[in-house]
Design a protein that fits this description.
about 700 residues; rRNA processing; kinase; alpha+beta; about 20% strand; Rossmann fold; CLP1_P; ATP-binding; ten-stranded mixed beta sheet; Jelly Rolls; seven-stranded mixed beta sheet; Polynucleotide 5'-hydroxyl-kinase NOL9; 17 helices; Elongation Factor Tu (Ef-tu), domain 3
């Protein structure tokens, strides 16, 4: 089923596909209707706009970044006359003698001798990490407007924990491969303790002929007081970048912080507390800078070369679109590499298609989904910060596919068939970290099923943890559903014989700390990442207006008749008489079966797991047997809910904090929560069924 499918633009020549699109991001304030993102992100932007609508801003400009002449024209609107000085310098005379006018006077008088300041007027600047005292010299905060302005020099970096909005006022900066330039919209940055901290890096200015001091003074005038402007103007050089940092509070962050165990999610973990810089102009904005002993994203030489190779291939004249499959064992950095690759590609194209094949660590949806998404905005945070509704989605309902390999592969093929084959947008395919046995055979199948142009194989410690998936290896490899073609002695003399399709194979050695090992600190375990993504999805049930968080048990549910939808359990065998016990207080996928649901007056139960479109998720918070009703909480729009005729229950359970933190109940009387249960009893656990698995010896391995 197609959900919120964007309109495709026809008639564009191939040469226009990869032109620089950063100028297209210079636009008026974004509205939720313009943002192809989740309701969470749309509400976040909307709320942020409301909080700053009374103050001047240069975010999301309709036109591209202003030229030098435009800035000079604006800055000279209040001038009476300009008197020539030596070497073509000038001194300005203002209409009034305000503090701002005095600043301009002092600055103009300081420009002597070839129009530049003397070395004594400019602070010493060095590349590297901004930390400690350096932040006091290059950052100033306006307490009235509750924002800070930071001046960065070329190749200087700021690594931090926390969250904020970033607007580039002057120059260029880069975050996770995405370049943010002046005149573009502001972007939300998320750097929680659950993932690697974000790093902001200043880039070299693209225009070396600009009058940097004049333009910078005009920009700073809008955001800082007179004294603060004077201090920062001394830091401005031809390679300076100026960024505006503002606090960010959204329904997502409020909902997550309402749970005790997640209240410190955006603070440094225990291992970084001694490395946090707590006394800077940025701290009150929700940002905590980190010293250089804490590494941000560490990229190896092979990492950077692979990114460059893929991006160059996409920008070149390829026959068709680039299809990049990324694979590797667990905890090797596949998701981070993909986010960086998507962000880098978005510097050159308006969108990137993404096929999700990793059930356990999904990027845009709760765990257990296979999906096809079109990404148009940069990914500047971990998965739970950009949950959104994909164009196409299938609910597999488990975090691993080992119980039914055929259903996994058929679901992926079904998603691929829904993608228009005429699209020239690059495609990135994410895969699971299962690279042994049947997991490796699935990778072989996927490379054969899809028109892959590049295979990026991540590894660590100098080995690939599995055979290298080169085109030569694939000629003799066995998959779960595919096998190498039978070769005969006559093949080389037969004209009809076609050589196997080739692709580029790239090896990336990951070198970050603790590579190959699951995080053990708080918020860093994979099961916690899954819960964070699901909680982020449920945060869409919250009101976009500021205010207290409403617990799920206080929200009004939809009433759905038993006869209107079918109910199915995917992950295990449940006898029909126990189906409602299993489904109550559980997460269900809202799906659309191809055939009409017919009922004989009672509930409709499915006997097997279907492969069908999924439009979202809901919490089945109650079942009324007397009236034949399901009570369902979901953020899905009612117009889409009318198409839903199937509820699928899987192994993806609600986070325990949702059930154990229900206000208004005494301990022991909380709904859906009990301690009167023993897993030691025979049959107390669920029965797991493995479909279609055969011994490796029977598959020719």
């Amino acid at each position: 089923m197609k959900v919120n499918k964007p309109a495709q633009v026809k008639g564009h020549a191939k040469s226009q596909k990869w032109k620089d699109v950063r100028g297209k991001r210079c636009r008026p304030p974004i509205s939720s209707s313009e943002l192809n993102s989740s309701p969470v992100m749309a509400r976040m932007i909307k709320e942020h706009q409301a909080s700053v609508k009374k103050k001047p801003t240069v975010k999301r400009l309709k036109n591209k970044a202003k030229s030098v002449s435009d800035f000079k024209k604006n800055s000279s609107s209040g001038l009476k006359k300009s008197y020539s000085q030596a070497n073509g310098s000038s001194v300005f005379t203002m209409d009034n003698e305000s503090d701002d006018s005095q600043d301009w006077k002092e600055y103009s008088q300081s420009i002597q001798g070839n129009g530049v300041e003397t070395s004594a007027d400019v602070e010493d600047v060095r590349p590297g990490r901004l930390e400690g005292d350096a932040l006091h010299y290059c950052a100033e905060r306006d307490d009235r407007k509750n924002h800070a302005v930071l001046v960065m020099q070329k190749e200087q970096t700021l690594c931090f924990r926390g969250k904020c909005f970033l607007t580039c006022l002057y120059g260029r900066v880069e975050v996770m491969g995405f370049t943010i330039e002046e005149g573009q919209q502001s972007y939300p940055l998320f750097s929680p303790a659950s993932h690697c901290p974000l790093t902001i890096r200043a880039l070299e200015s693209s225009d070396g002929t600009r009058d940097d001091k004049t333009e910078a003074a005009s920009i700073l005038q809008k955001y800082l007081s007179s004294a603060s402007r004077k201090k920062l103007l001394k830091r401005i050089t031809s390679n300076s970048s100026i960024i505006l940092l503002e606090p960010m509070e959204t329904p997502l962050t409020r909902f997550l912080s309402s749970f005790t165990e997640l209240s410190e999610l955006f603070s440094p973990p225990m291992s970084e507390l001694m490395s946090a810089v707590l006394d800077t102009p940025l701290n009150g904005l929700g940002m905590i800078p980190l010293v250089s002993t804490v590494e941000g994203l560490k990229t190896s030489k092979s990492y950077r070369e692979a990114l460059s190779t893929v991006v160059s291939a996409c920008r070149g004249d390829m026959d068709g679109c680039a299809v990049i499959l990324v694979c590797g064992t667990k905890n090797v950095g596949k998701s981070t590499f993909i986010r960086t690759l998507i962000n880098t590609l978005l510097n050159h194209t308006t969108s990137v298609d993404y096929l999700e094949g990793d059930l356990g660590q999904t990027e845009f949806t709760p765990t257990g989904c296979l999906s096809l998404s079109t990404v148009r905005e940069p990914l500047l945070g971990p998965p739970f910060t950009h949950q959104r509704t994909p164009e196409h989605m299938i609910y597999y309902a488990q975090s691993s596919c080992e119980s039914d390999l055929d259903r996994y592969l058929e679901s992926l093929k079904s998603l691929w068939r829904r993608r228009s084959q005429s699209r020239e947008t690059p495609v990135i395919i994410n895969t699971m970290g299962w690279v042994k046995g049947f997991g490796f055979q699935l990778l072989v199948d996927m490379i054969r099923f899809f028109p892959v142009s590049h295979v990026v194989q991540l590894c660590h410690s100098g080995t690939t943890q599995c055979p290298a998936l080169t085109p030569e290896f694939l000629r003799t490899a066995h998959g779960c559903q595919t096998h190498p073609p039978a070769q005969t002695a006559l093949d080389e003399f037969t004209e009809s014989h076609t050589p196997p399709r080739s692709y580029t194979h790239l090896i990336v050695q990951s070198e970050f700390q603790d590579v190959g090992r699951q995080g053990t600190a708080k918020h860093q375990r994979t099961n916690e990442h899954r819960e964070q993504s699901l909680l982020a999805y449920l945060s869409q049930l919250q009101s976009p207006d500021p205010g207290p968080v409403r617990p799920l048990n206080s929200l009004t549910p939809y009433q759905v008749p038993h006869t209107a939808v079918a109910l199915g359990v995917v992950h295990c065998e449940v006898v029909p008489s126990h189906m409602f016990y299993a489904a109550n207080a559980s997460l269900v996928g809202l799906c659309c079966l191809g055939e009409k649901i017919t009922s004989r007056g009672g509930p409709v139960l499915l006997s097997q797991a279907p492969i069908c479109p999924c439009v979202g998720f809901g919490v089945l918070r109650g079942i009324d047997m007397a009236r034949g009703l399901y009570f369902l909480l979901t953020p899905v729009d009612p117009s889409i809910l009318r198409k839903v005729n199937c509820l699928l229950l899987g192994a993806i359970s609600l986070p325990s904090c949702v059930l154990t933190t229900q206000p208004g109940f005494e301990e022991g009387d909380m709904p859906y929560v009990t301690t009167d249960y023993s897993f030691d009893l025979t049959g107390a656990g669920k029965l797991r069924v493995f479909k279609g698995l055969t011994r490796p010896s029977q598959t020719g391995m």
